[in-house]
Protein 1
Amino acid sequence: MNKESSRRSFIKKSAVAGSAALIAPTIVPSSVFGANDRINAAVLGLNGRGKSHIQGFMSQKNVQIKTFCDPDMNILKERQKSFKEKYNADVVLEQDLRRVMDDKDIDVISIASPNHWHALTTIWACQAGKDVYVEKPGSHNIWEGRKMVEAAHKYDRIVQHGVQLRSSPAVQEAIQLIRDGYIGNVYMARGLVFRWRPSIGDKGFSPVPEGLDYDLWTGPAPKTPFTENLVHYNWHWNFDYGNGDVGNQGIHETDLCMWGLDVGLPTKITSMGGKFLWDDAKTVPEVLTSVYKYPDENKIIQFEVRPWCTNAEDGATVGNIFYGDKGYLVVDGYDKYQTFLGKDRTPGKSGSDGGKSGSEMDRGAGGTDGHFANFIEAVRKHDASILNGPVETAHLSSGLAHLGNIAYQLDRVLTFNPKSETFVNDPEADAMLTRNYRPGFEVPDKV
């Protein structure tokens, strides 16, 4: 099975769930690009991953960033200054993303804001006729992930999910080996997220810093008094805004587990973990082990999050392992793999994109620049079929993490119906598929 047929198989499986809700695409005229087919971009969320988005856009031919958007004016001014120094170009600053949506000169946006904003921003952008690059996880909960898929289809927009390892030639080669039966009948995938995550302490409440529009930062989520426990990074470790490390770093690995096994959402989920190291402000578990079972396909996914001193597994601390009846395959990081065959673990085929060593995220052809290049090509051709990380991956890989978190929070085995995307006779679990949205920031039922 080649790369294209593999991609189409994955999308077909992902489209089965909720397919009745998908409306025939409404044809929205494609953006009219600027002079000489220049694509004008806006980057939303500039504190962390947004810096890589700037590089990703500016590495593309005839793409220009017009606007930076972030609720924190202090960060905006810092990025504006560094952008001018590096690229000798000016950029518009905007705190309110709704004004970015109203700017008809902007063709594409990238979203690197906190998780609780991803889905609503994507939907608003699709409704505004803009194409989207959205960071992982695509959604904060399962229901809004499905709404992202519906919006992309209805408004005929290009939506790329930020799982950049899908643009790695080495990882693509590894998936092809799995498809070709190199390690035999592959029955299990394992996802690893062993990251150094220290205590965040508990800083308590404090006044909102000057320059920060905290109401806009909060957006769809519950609004609490301001605390540095959340802004600007540690929201990852609070369920109201983030999804823990399985929904942070782990989305790369949940996505690869599903891609490698060629499966969608599971029917049985169990998850166990907790906080064992620090008495800090995190509400998510430090250690988490989740298991997802696919009885119809006779396959299983195991996922582990560990935060501190730990062993590697055949060299991988962040990555995936696929197990077959002839051997196993290890994907280490974002751009290399190794196989081991037979009971003696004889080293087999391996591959690498030849990037930098270490833990750097943006390395090799599988890094952010390559993923942005794939996105821009799809935008220019207005062809979602060539995306390496289409909107369906945003819904499903994020959804796998969400299911594990729900099982952890409820502390029991859950049975899930992938077709209806609801739990089986479990109203308590169903209530956790979505959330209560603040007025003015609701993810719409009908996109």
Protein 2
Amino acid sequence: MYKDEIYWREKQNMSPKLFTMFKQNELSGEQVRKDIVAGFIVAIIALPLSIALAISSGVSPEKGLITAIFAGFIISFLGGSKVQIGGPTGAFVVIVYGIVKMYGMDGLITATIMAGILLVIMGLLKFGNLIEYVPHTVTVGFTSGIAVTLLITQIKDLLGLKINDVPAEAIGKIESYIHNINTFDMMTFIVGIACILIMIYWPKINKTVPASIIALILSTVVVNVFSLNVDTIGSVYTNISASIPMPSVPSFSIDKIVSLIQPAITIAVLAGIESLLSCVVSDNMINDKHDSNMELVAQGLGNIASALFGGIPATGAIARTAANVKNGGKSPISGMVHAITLLLIMVVLMPLAKMIPMTVLSAILIIVSYNMGEWKEMKEMMSLPKKDVVVLLATFILTIVFDLVIAIAVGMTIHIVANIVLKNKVDSEIEDVA
């Protein structure tokens, strides 16, 4: 009961978890040491992911690291979760790619800042409590839909297809791949498949060293030592910066803001839902309760900071958060160490990133897309009542064909209408019996 009272009081005050832990003397020297080790390990996991997610989003590689550094630090420092790891995620790839294609990098930065402001407002208005009312069928549907769209995005680099202008929509991408299948490169495909196999079987040999790092290092060495004709980050992106840019504010205008309202809402909704779902998962792992509203505020501030330094949208990364807990992280210090470690890696080792094959990054994200899809749960949900199955499939399909906001809106509408109809039917049957 005492813990529940503390949680209720913290939630009303919206205090960052780090500050609360200091006040309650929950941080021992031993735990801080464990958090530092966990933060370093998570940074190693986040390194190839951040680069791969940036490239797949249509921006240069370093912008993924900038996002993990600035957004990741603020989300941990000010967040409502003890163990949340923030940064770029696979859920944003298709959304960011579409915004960059339509509005350019300047438009993405503006939309991300707007989304950050929306998230802060949502947190201050206590909107974080609304996550409890989102049906599980909707969250499973759009999460698995996002996984499919991320997988589709990776086909180009896995097959080594030469396409200058890839459409933003999933169906358009597939059509583009089919039309350009004659540019298929066998060597690129072999390297990519080899990386996928390494990431599948390496954990059976060693679970300490991340499989993605092993695949990245081995493929980079093989491609460069044997001078294989495979596209690398350096051959595609000639100007990669290893320096941290100065913060800059994009130019604003009423017309620009109005045109970016829908993308900003999409970013805010996805960042809010995914981060809070990640918090729920981590709560179960560490037997704690997060402050959903404080988390939204931190997510908002993290996205604003990321955008000001030229980064992309960020949210809570479920897989990295889970890795943090599994490696001993139990306070926001691990997330902050993760961000600082990435900063040091970017400054010192970024020039070496030019040698990384593009196909290994696609292989890493293919594994990510498979892991983020809730396939087992979707299969089990097919035995639910028809109204729930319709909500699940509608959200799943619409996420792939259109976008997240439309999918969630339609899924929620079907859920609400179906339950109202069901309730009226039950009430009518009760009246007939009476």
